[in-house]
Batch of 2 targets.
Target 1
Amino acid sequence: MTASPLLVRFDDGDRTMADLLGGKGANLAEMTRMGLPVPHGFTITTQACREYLAKGQVPAELAALVTSAMADLETATGQTFGAGDDPLLVSVRSGARFSMPGMMDTILNVGLTDSSVQALAARGGERFAWDCYRRLVQMYGRTMLGAEAAHLDAAVADACAGAGVADPTALSVGRLMDLVTHQRQVLKEQTGHDLPQDPHDQLRRSVEAVFESWNSPRARLYRAHEGIPEDLGTAVNVVQMVYGNTGPRSGSGVCFTRDPATGSPVPYGDYLQNAQGEDVVNGSRQTVPLAALEALEPTAFDQLMSHLAGLERHYRDLCDVEFTIEDGALWILQTRVGKRSPAAAFVIAADLARHEVITMDEALARVDGHQLESLLHDQFDDQDGLPWVAAGLPASPGASVGEAVFDSDSAVSAAAEGRAVVLVRAETSAEDLPGILASCAVVTARGGLASHAAVVARGFGRTCVTGVEGMAVDEAARQAHLPSGVVIHQGDVLSVDGTTGKLYAGPLPIRPSSVAAALADPSDEAPDAVVARLVGSVRQILAQADSRARLKVLANAETGPQAAQARRLGAQGIGLCRTEHMLLGSRRHLVERVIVGDDRPGALLEIERIAVDELTQILRAMDGLPVVVRLLDPPLHEFLPDCEDLAVQAALEASAGRVDPGLRARLETARRWHQVNPMLGLRGVRLLTVLPELVDVHVRALVAATHGLRADGFDPRPEIMVPLVADPAELAAARTRIRQHLEVPGASGATVPMPIGVMVELPRAALRAGELARLADFFSFGTNDLTQTTWGMSRDDAQTSFLSAYRSSGLLERDPFESIDEEGVGELVQLAIERGRHTKADIGLGVCGEHAGDPGSIHFFARAGVDYVSCSPPRVVIARLEAGRAEVLGGRATTDDTR
Ligand code: ADP
Ligand code: MG
Ligand code: MG
């Protein structure tokens, strides 16, 4: 028989045909080929559905194809469809290319009519037959009625209440008959037609209804959310019914070939005696664990175990399976590669590779950075059912509980007393750094994923939620009003989930990440065997990633402990050390003194002393590995007092008849240096012409730290980079200035070679990369600023002001600060690489900036030919994993959605 593209029998299909047969149909055909006990059936294809949806009627040829396939089904089963002594019944099951659990309809027991129900009763008993009939009317009715199906549920609830039973399977035959009558009345009232009494008519209408369910509102919503194309359509599988509801020797189950939560290699599942279809998953009755099936039905159990092992070998992965036992005989009704927890993904991939079912490269391809990330931070043990009080952007993952405080000083003093605090601010600035460090979590009303709070919190591994819409922070009153009406006062306990962006009032139990602890400290013993296996699996896959990766992973760090942590996590150096971070908090006044000119030499000396100390620690922690130090790049306003604050103070003084000359001078300076647009103002390399001494100190400090460490027998590898360069002339001037300091010899008389690089973070720098390459040993792409300046969007407030609206209205698919904008910013990166290499073939190429820790962006940088990415220390392992995956997956998509 020649196969039609509209209808394919299970005997004629296989798993490669999922586009046409849908996932369920393709796997039913595959299992049929494998010789598994699958009931007979056929698939009406997605193409038939697409034609139906386009024309509003089933394709003309389909009726004859179905008639002939049904005739074959009757021959194969020896039964007659919906008639005779032993009526054949079928299920009509939706099944699209991509799994959409529960989104479309399935109708069981199609073919039952007022007369065939009698025949079925004669064969299997009245209770069984009428149980099937009420299920048919229920599912058929639900499919026809859509949202109005609640009326049918009410009929079932009434029947149960009337009989005093919890669940319709416990109804007597008489009550089941009454229920069917009642349900059919509802159906007639709501749709104008009764359950068709011609089985073929029932089948035809059921198939059309399942086609229609592709366009149900919930299915559309699900597809929009999951990014599944709208035009695929669903296949419809017509399957000979087997019955799990004939009595205690029958039942239905769902299971996995391994534990999908832990990855433990033992089949796992639930079974329910005397049950059909969804009973086992809808929670109406108590199921038993799969292991209990062994005692109930030993033969079927053994068969099932052997089929599960066979399926896993065949699919080379965890599978989930739906099965039914009818009077002791096992039937397999569905399989697919199963969903699993992030932990199970690692354990299963490593285990299958160890047993040589898959290669290590495949294992690496089967996990991803998002899964690893979720294993690395603390989580709330159980937040289900607990109401959250506000939600914002998930800016830095983790789970933290602490008392609310509303300013940095309170955070610091509470932390000094050993209390856990959550810093709640309208937004944060450099002044808040000590408070952020003292807190376990930061919550801001404004700001996006690249805002100050978000970047700093991620860098230091603090939980953070930004852009909590509608939250009004009243710092003076020490309280925050949430849109839900809840008011948070200083001292109130908050639970902050940085992974979901949700806030909870009160403490939630926390589960710390044992994986993070084990990766950061190999000597740390795992608390139990399950964790030990997980950690072993993660290590094994990371080792594979490292062996594959061409992209190196460096870290951003400003302190010795951060650098040490990064090294333990596998960082191959520091790609970005932000010198201005050494001057925040209580050291801020030093910069102000330099600017104001108030004991400038003393202040400079102090800044240099601090820098020598910090840089020595970092270089020592990264002994033998590169440490790229960026010259001072502060938005200057962050170091100066606020004009308005000072003006208010001065006015108060004046009205009290006092004059404070110091205050006047500070106000004047603040006014003189005030910039309307500081992020586009006096920053980066521009400082060199205005305040060169302030930049010099860090070069001198780096040279001194290097000499010191060399004298102590260390092998420091310092490099310098110049930020915010737009023009080669700027870089040339900076180089000349830097070199003067490099020529100063150390105690041994030797000078230190120090590569000098340039940050490419302005579009003009990317365009002038050919010239810049003459003057630079390496480029470091600062993709935060490059994104900000290419799009002309502020990274500090674009997310809260309009980006989320852009995304929800479909104007923008992804936040360009989160995931690199390949077509725009990415093209500038590629262009700069091309022009830079044209001048200097071996020019070093790095990326520092938030994108360096984003899985999708890492793949882009690997393709672009970058040498290294530099990300915050906690993201180093994620970047390592993705750097390896980038090579293994090549040009393929980063997420494999067919699995
Ligand atoms: P879903 O896609 O929502 O899982 P299914 O089409 O798999 O829907 O069917 C729903 C339930 O009915 C499942 O538990 C399935 O095992 C059961 N079922 C489907 N077809 C048959 C059949 N021919 N005989 C017995 N049970 C069936
Ligand atoms: Mg199913
Ligand atoms: Mg920058």
Target 2
Amino acid sequence: MKTLLERIIADCKHYTSQGHVATYIPELANVSPDKLGIYVSMNNGNEYSAGDCESSFTMQSVVKPLILLLALMDSGIDAVRDLVGVEATGKPFDAFNYSDQALTGAHINPMINTGAIALCTLIHGTSYHDRFSRLMELTRKLADNQNLDVDYSVYQSEKMTGNKNRALAYMLTAYGMITDPVEEILDCYFKACSISVNCKDLANIAHIFANHGIHPITGERQFPAEYAKYVNATLATCGMYDGSGEFALTVGFPAKSGVGGGIMAVIPHKMGIGVFAPALDKHGNSVAGVQALAMLSHELELSIY
Ligand code: DON
């Protein structure tokens, strides 16, 4: 497996020159575009890695499955489904152009920005500071890493410039989908996107989703299996945005990308994978990361379809 991962890194490295690092969050532009790392946590307890797997990067949209999970844990499936739908939009993650006259939950899903911002309101807490602290704690627990924290430079950078998300949040308010103060919700969302991780952290988180909420090593249940199935299903249909259909065909398992260059991939009952390569394609998905997952999927026949 180690040899295979090293071959994948060597063969996919050139794809890093085919994408561009995100610049719309200014701080993300400072990353070197040629990095590529992968980490695999397997159900038999073995872990393998190759390439730049120790580099840190911010979760960005990879945190959306955790926002969804905590909303499910705190408010339950009915409340989550009433607020945010599950259908793929076929549009970019920050799209405004909803076709109907009135924006409803059916138009959005938990993996796009509007859906994730709305779901922050279903996380319990006495304040948004408290809600974010609970999300941070859950992320540390699932990643098995108590040292995880927010990258405050990226957080400040997005908070200063995130006017598209501000507009999306006001649109949710205008259509009565959220009622809490927009800046407080966004502060929680921006901090969540700015949690700094590495490939191992993502592989550990994915591994628990792959085992339907049970920690694969300790056997301890972290959350109900039905929540894992809910999250995994939305990853399969919406996790790679308007590239989700292509990803299902060429790679074939639930995954979530982020504009920091990370991808968290869930292979049910088998393994969790974290990859990192910050140069992105037009959808905001890591170019070399997707290629590395495609090669791994092909070599080990991991497609679930
Ligand atoms: O809200 C944003 O635009 C970013 N914090 C996250 C977007 C993102 O990661 C989209 N992913 N590919």
